[in-house]
Amino acid sequence: MEEMRYEAPDSLDAAVAMLSDAGEAGRVLAGGTDLLVQLRAGMVHPGLVVDIKNIPEVRAISEEGGGFRVGAAVTGAELGEHAGMCKAWPGVVEATELIGSTQIQGRATMGGNLCNGSPAADSVPALIAAGAVASVIGPSGQRDVPVEDIIIGPGKTSLEKGEFVVSFKFPDRPAHSGDAYLRFIPRTEMDIAVVGAGVNITLDDDGVCQAARVGLGAVAATPLLVADAADALIGSTLDDAALEKLAAAASAACKPIDDKRGTIEFRTKVAGVLARRAALIALDRAKEGR
Amino acid sequence: MSKYHVSTTINGDPVEYLCEPEQTLLDVLRDELYLTGSKEGCASGDCGACSVLVDDRLVCACLALGAEMGGKKIETIEGMADGDELHPLQQKFLEHAALQCGICTPGFLVAAKSLLDRNPDPTEEETRYWLAGNLCRCTGYDKIIRAVLDTAAEMRSGK
Amino acid sequence: MSQALKLDDDEQDLKYVGTRPVRPDGVDKVTGRAKFGADLHLPGMLTGQVLRSPHPHARIVSIDTSKAEALAGVKAVITRDDFQDMESEFVPAGEMMVNYRDVVRNVMAREKVLYEGHAVAAVAATSNSIARKALRLIDVEYEVLPHVIDAVAAMAPDAPLLHDDMMTEGVDPKPDTPSNVSKRVEFALGDVEKGFAEADVIVEREFNTKPVHQGYIEPHACVASMSEDGQADLWCSTQGHYVVRTHCARLLNLDVSKIRVTASEIGGGFGGKTVVYLEPLALALSQKTGHPVKMVMSRDDVFRATGPTSGANVWVKMGATKDGRITAAEAVLKYQAGAFQGSPVQPGCMCAFAPYDLENVKTVGYDVVTNRPKVAAYRAPGGPISEYATESVVDELAKMLGIDPVDFRLRNAAREGTHAAYGPKFGPIGLVETLEQAKAHEHYNTPLKPGQGRGIASGFWFNIGGETCVTLNINEDGSATLMAGTPDIGGSRASLALMTAERLGIEPEKVRPLIADTSSLGYNFLTGGSRATFSSGMAAVEAADEAIKEMCARAAKIWEIPEDAVVWEDGHAKPAGDNAGKFDPLSLADIADMAGKTGGPIGGAARINAKGAAPSFGTHMVDLEVDEETGRVTILRYTVLQDAGRAVHPSYVEGQYQGGAVQGIGWALNEEYIYGEDGRMQNPGFLDYRIPVASDVPMIDTVIVEVPNPRHPYGVRGVGETPIVPPMAAIANAMENATGIRFTELPMSPPKVLKAIEDRDGG
């Protein structure tokens, strides 16, 4: 077995070159909260670990084209301290802040949470609901990929060898917009989501829903963008009937498994419950909004 | 195995060490530097017994590589007291009997200090959530939470 | 002068017992200085690691260690061949018994691996990474066998057999074919059939519980160092270093005197650190290499390879008259022992109906082996499981009869003089007091909101005494050093200092209590069964009395009066009788200062088998809320009322109550071993083995009831076990009140709760 090497390049080009040279043996280290557990458990044996945290682009939050661009290796704690993101995307921020404990928040990143490929990753349904787009870099250059297209199966992503996520672009927020994320866990903290639901809506001046996106986590092999659930809201004032349709659509979209964290029945039912509850929070935020 | 040479600051002192690339910060602290106050309870970031501050940020030392620490500022339980004077949290933990076996205590203290550094007046709920990543199996958390809240009150009153 | 074993009743002024000083080991523990099992480093130390079975049940065909041994940096590899086989012989370990034939097989698999995680080989190497590599180079050929995980399934006639020679004990006639049932036990009083015939209402229910782990935050760890002449030093995290010494001496065929065991600070045990896992392996590796060897378990190892407590199937039937008198109670308990016999089913049977004064009672228990790690003691072993079931049924009876659940318990409560179903007559006990105080408590009288439920349950544990030694040295400056042999897990040094100081009449800060190594003090049974403060406290008082007697003699010598003309009061020798007032009192420090001139060093010692342990009863009360759309349960309020006998250091008594309650909350709601069809544990970490976190629980209110134990000099009962007994039933009873659903399966995790709610509502 090859000895593991550690590198911490300070530019995107250098990181791409290293990962490209390493091929299959290369792994990206962002917050490390998944990778180090896998290393210790002997689940992975990388020959090269490329720590991307010294690269300025992956660590920055900036305003861009009316929206925000957030570096893939910005930690949850840092995101939660960014007033602009908290105001524009409270659902994304709260989802990211739900990843693990305070200690995990000091390290864990949205980029890592996404690229670990878990269907239960907390930030991902909120990112999907937000319509966030990942900026991916690799040997063949830069490309933009909608977040919902990154995870293609448990632990699997659509990233090519040597590619990694540099940042996420969040679109501009129209007036009367709000997002929210809720997850179900057995305890109050420290668990992996059994179900996660992110809802993002925009209302018109009369309070009628003009646009909506709904993301679900831990209910299928990948996090889901559920168009039927969004359609249930669009054109409504998020009245009880619309919320019931939303819950039914969310439950209908689930293709979960029975495992140590929950049953098929439980996940299916609770996905609807959480989608409805998250929609109501998003509604309050949209009404309070700009 | 080739080792990495790392220069860092631990509890205010310049420290240099050699580590293997797989070694975590916790491995380095405990096995190379003999700073055994940080404990390993799980090695997966689930128990918080290895809580330390890296550049003022609360993290689990088991989830950071030793090789990552070049130029960083690390603070551990061993640096919490000021000479022979205990930090108010340490004193309150003793007064409130906020420990039984004591294995989780260093992690709780480091995490609680990080809370009070940011929020001098946390509610009980904020305190419980901030400390949710620190497992204690002995106390049921009651006396720990009371000790932290009492410390905060005393520090606010400037005693 | 007070007498040993005289009860200090409430009229007696206690100066220190009952106060809350800072514990003597406190500063070390808040500064990171305290040394736990994994914190010792010795020059030239190697690291030892264990290769564990991936299979729940398999015959070991062969083990080839040659490639591992050839790896640079590997100093030794050990397997089953490095341990001699042992005769079948039972010895006490905690509240349970172990059999050396099983112990040697549990520390290192011999013919078969019997659970996933069973140790198969161990290596000693110069670094962790080399040791890990070496483990991957050991080739083990297994012949995989069918496995069985559940106790009821293991009792089936066609179940895979773990041990070909296991004939069920306790049945007549003795069976001639082997099974997975190691023994049947029975406790009976009166005639249950007659009792059920007299009942107006009868409740019969079956309950199931899952194994739960003690969940101490410190994994098992030790450092062993053996010299070429077979003298060994062992440093380890244990509840009983003398018991470790005994086991290691037997397994390694060494004289007990050759092994000195030092108990490190211990990061939690709860019963789980009463047996040996790594210690014999580390000694064997050190013997083979001539180097100190350190071994530390991973959390994964702790879950897969160390004792949880049993999962169980419990059937309970109870009957009562309309006026609320229980006429008969019967239970059948089937407890998983894990891979080797020895579940806590016997204490489970004995505890099952202990809180009640019953004429007709019968409990039958079965000890069942399954392909899981061998269970170890966990806080009141056996009691929480059986009392969860019985206290659920008691609650249901009360509800059927329309009687307040506290009143129903009071009508049937065990009192002084009650003939316990498991044999003895109770002396003074405090169950009635906990129930009366529960009923009067503001918590019990606070109205609930819609959707909330309140539950109550009582619990019992015997408490134990046992072999205990201490020495007490009066130092030349008037301070005192107390050496005890019961490892301090939760603050017992503070209690011992208080009792010693009380007796000597000096300030507690003048007493330094230490835990001696096994060569510095005679044999001590382990810390468990709630015996440390009781037994070592009793011994400390006896040692103090010996020192006091000697100090009085020294004063008599100085004053030139008869020894019996001197009394000890308030830390001073005083002339008494005809001589009263003739001489100025001599303080302990004065006498200590002159000790060299009056006969030499002064001290006391006690070597006792502490008798007179008395049970502790408790009653718990909980309010909770159920999210009926998700099945999530939120604990809103919790109160523990328990008889401590006497709370020597009330803060640490409260801490035991609070900690036990929260462990019970975990057991009730989320903790469980989850196995796949492959017989492998799926949640061997704190991520998915979900112990309560700080944000899961409210403050835990406590009421310390004090009905002193007349057989202890300060009335101590022992408090650590009982608090984990009532929570599961209290929570299940509250769940019933909140939802109308009687939950008969633990844990009451959200998927189960939601399903039950949907079933209630007609799907």
Question: What would your notes on this structure say?
Answer:
The complex is a heterotrimer of chains A (290), B (159) and C (763). A five-stranded antiparallel beta sheet of chain A has the order 4-5-10-6-7. A four-stranded antiparallel beta sheet of chain A has the order 11-12-13-14, with helices on both faces. In chain A, strands 1-3-2 form a three-stranded parallel beta sheet, with helices on one face. In chain A, a hairpin with a 6-residue loop joins strand 13 and strand 14 (224-225). The termini of chain A are far apart. Chain A is globular and about 60 Å long. Helix content of chain A is 36%, strand content 25%. Chain A folds into three domains: 5-50, Uridine Diphospho-n-acetylenolpyruvylglucosamine Reductase, domain 2; 57-170, Uridine Diphospho-n-acetylenolpyruvylglucosamine Reductase, domain 3, CATH 3.30.465.10; 177-288, Enolase-like, domain 1 (2-Layer Sandwich). In chain A, helix 10 runs antiparallel to helix 11. With 290 residues, chain A is of the alpha+beta class. With 159 residues, chain B is of the alpha+beta class. Chain B has two domains: 4-79, Ubiquitin-like (UB roll), CATH 3.10.20.30; 88-156, [2Fe-2S]-binding domain (DNA polymerase, domain 1, Orthogonal Bundle). In chain B, 33% of the residues lie in helices and 16% in strands. Chain B has five helices and five strands. Chain B has helices at residues 25-32, 88-95, 105-118, 124-130, 142-156, and strands at 4-10, 13-19, 51-54, 57-60, 73-75. In chain B, strands 2-1-5-3-4 form a five-stranded mixed beta sheet, with helices on both faces. In chain B, a hairpin with a 2-residue loop joins strand 1 and strand 2. Chain C has 763 residues and is an alpha+beta fold. Chain C has three domains: 38-145 and 227-267 and 273-305, Aldehyde oxidase/xanthine dehydrogenase, a/b hammerhead (Aldehyde Oxidoreductase, domain 3, Alpha-Beta Complex), CATH 3.90.1170; 312-463 and 614-760, Aldehyde oxidase/xanthine dehydrogenase, molybdopterin binding domain (Aldehyde Oxidoreductase, domain 4, 2-Layer Sandwich); 465-610, Aldehyde oxidase/xanthine dehydrogenase, molybdopterin binding domain (Aldehyde Oxidoreductase, domain 4), CATH 3.30.365.10. In chain C, the strands form seven sheets. Chain C has a seven-stranded mixed beta sheet, with helices on both faces. At the B-C interface, helix 1, helix 2, helix 3, helix 4 and helix 5 of B face helix 1 and helix 18 of C.
